[in-house]
């Protein structure tokens, strides 16, 4: 099988590594508009060959879009225009509804499988690619009934090969859940980083005092601004909904601290501790 990876950063590069290691792909083609990234991906052995978009579409059995979501919306219709029977295209974007609407009435819609692997790190670029990134992580496939059985089976097989556990839901439900469990986490991290940098001008002091708790909380602030700015604007309705709830609760913490209400603060944090049961249950 020949697979073309469009976008050779963390996600696309890591997928390439695992598809090669598992033998799922015989040939890996790479496409990246950043010439430096393309050269680096080839040198790292992430792909066998760098090609242009036309070559990728004409040669690949499976085309994987591992680029920011607005770029996916731009590329996907033109890719579907040129696809033939037996080819498959999937994307790995963090939002789904706007992408889905873009190609909902396309005559080749059946060749497309909407997917999102819930995996990643705060790093970016081809050098960030790691083996095993997707192992035991959840992969979401949206609106599977809109894809042909053959296309769906191919993408399911690809994710199974890299060790993912698959869930199925519609695009709108995906975007709502992603806003609450992923997108708000990144906003919180970016906001904390900005607050600390604004208050503490002495970077050495930040480094010297930072503990594991601070590091783990602010880690996501090192993520790609280009990617996340697009996610926030593409999933704005659900992100604003969860952000309003988050702001309200942060304001409540502030008010209780200002009032010296230690019992109320203890009560709020005890209530928050219940998240441990949810997370432990998910691990099981």
Please give a quick description of this structure.
The chain is of the alpha/beta class. The chain is 56% helix and 13% strand.
**What quaternary form is this?**
single chain
Strand order of the largest sheet: 3-2-1-4-5-6-7-8
Helical proportion, percent range: 55-70%
Give the overall average pLDDT: 92
Number of helices: 13
Structural class: alpha/beta
* Total DSSP E strands: 8
Strand content: 5-15%
- What is the chain-wise order of helices and strands? EHEHEHEHEHEEHEHHHHHHH
- Sheet of most strands: 8 strands, mixed
Q: How does the overall form come out from the CA principal axes?
A: globular
| N- and C-termini, Cα separation | 35 Å
Describe the structure.
The protein is an alpha/beta fold and 284 residues long. It has helices at residues 10-22, 35-43, 53-59, 69-81, 97-103, 149-161, 171-199, 203-209, 212-218, 225-234, 236-259, 262-272, 275-283; strands spanning 2-6, 27-31, 49-50, 62-65, 88-91, 112-117, 138-142, 165-169. Helix 6 (149-161) links the parallel strand 7 and strand 8 (165-169). The model has no long low-confidence stretch (mean pLDDT 92).
Give the helices and strands, then pairings.
Layout: E1 2-6, H1 10-22, E2 27-31, H2 35-43, E3 49-50, H3 53-59, E4 62-65, H4 69-81, E5 88-91, H5 97-103, E6 112-117, E7 138-142, H6 149-161, E8 165-169, H7 171-199, H8 203-209, H9 212-218, H10 225-234, H11 236-259, H12 262-272, H13 275-283
Parallel strand pairs: 1-2, 1-4, 2-3, 4-5, 5-6, 7-8
Antiparallel strand pairs: 6-7
């Amino acid at each position: 099988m020949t697979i073309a990876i469009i976008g050779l950063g963390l996600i696309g590069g890591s997928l390439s590594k695992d598809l090669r290691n598992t033998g799922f792909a015989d040939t890996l083609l790479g496409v990246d508009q950043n010439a430096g990234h393309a050269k680096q991906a080839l040198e790292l052995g992430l792909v066998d060959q760098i090609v242009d978009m036309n070559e990728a579409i004409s040669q690949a059995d499976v085309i994987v879009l591992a680029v920011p979501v607005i770029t996916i919306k731009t590329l996907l219709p033109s890719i579907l225009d040129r696809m033939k029977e037996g080819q498959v295209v999937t994307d790995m974007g963090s939002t789904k509804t706007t992408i889905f609407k873009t190609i909902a009435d396309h005559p080749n819609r059946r060749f497309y499988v909407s997917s999102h692997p819930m995996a990643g790190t705060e790093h970016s670029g081809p050098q960030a690619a790691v083996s095993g990134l997707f192992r035991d992580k959840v992969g979401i496939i949206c609106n599977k009934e809109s894809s042909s059985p053959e296309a769906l089976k191919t993408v399911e097989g690809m994710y199974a090969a890299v060790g993912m556990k698959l869930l199925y839901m519609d695009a709108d439900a995906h975007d709502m859940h992603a806003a609450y469990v992923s997108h708000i986490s990144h906003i919180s991290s970016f906001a904390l980083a900005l607050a600390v940098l604004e208050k503490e001008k002495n970077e050495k002091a930040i480094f010297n005092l930072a503990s594991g708790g601070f590091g783990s909380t602010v880690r996501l602030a090192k993520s790609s601004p280009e990617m996340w700015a697009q996610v926030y604007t593409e999933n704005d309705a659900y992100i604003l909904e969860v952000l309003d709830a988050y702001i309200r609760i942060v304001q409540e913490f502030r008010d209780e601290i200002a009032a010296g209400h230690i019992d109320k603060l203890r009560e709020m944090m005890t209530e928050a501790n219940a998240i441990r049961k949810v997370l432990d249950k998910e691990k099981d």
